[in-house]
Amino acid sequence: MNAQRKADLSLSMNEMGRRFWAGEAEICHQFWGQARTNEEQARWLRLQVFKEMYGSGLTGNPGGLIKAFLEKLTDQVGKAKTKSDRDEFDRSLRVLREEYNHYKLFADVLENATNLPVLHSDLKDWQIAEDRQLQAIRQGIREREGQLGELAIMFTEGGGAAFFLVGRTIKGDPLSDQIAQASEIVYADELEHGEHGAFDLANELDTEEEWARARTLIIEICEQRLRMRYGMFGIPVDETRIKEITDGKIEPLPVE
Ligand SMILES: [Fe+2]
Ligand SMILES: [Fe+2]
Description:
This protein is mainly alpha-helical. Helix content is 74%, strand content 0%.
């Protein structure tokens, strides 16, 4: 595949991603478009705390995302042979640090919202059905599609950070301010995580068939991400709108 064709496919994939990310932002505006009680905020915060620790299928490790990073790093200590091995180890250390920080930030916000301690043993009970389904879809793709599946999964990490892009703008009460502060930090980190996934995808896909397959997988994951967003806010899942977003009837989220 020549470089121009690859660049065109990559551009079109990223634009499709930005339409799904705009869909996620739209759902966030729907929820935060009015003042919310602490209990309404606590509902999505519980899922978010779970997601930062477990990653909803971003890795196949049953112990979750943080555990997956720790095990991968332990396994790779002392094995680097090349600059790229060293760079990858260094990046994993940084992303591990960032993801743990996201967990801590939202756990702190949740404790303030509910005045109850956030116990690690409660986390798994906080996953909602739509997120369990997202995890199952990613895991199925991982098992069926191998490396191409991993690339598609990582392209969808964080949903273009659209959730945090909107979250960082909310205000009006102390809890909202705290959510905005946490979202500001997570937004900057997740933007890079998503770009990294898009970069790896474009780097590794080499044939028309691979690009087409990855596109199908990414649509499947991103549609479920939208259901997960509706679910986390307690908004009924709008399948008609999801279909419209998939069909491109939405402006892509602008590039910052
Ligand atoms: Fe995160
Ligand atoms: Fe991330």
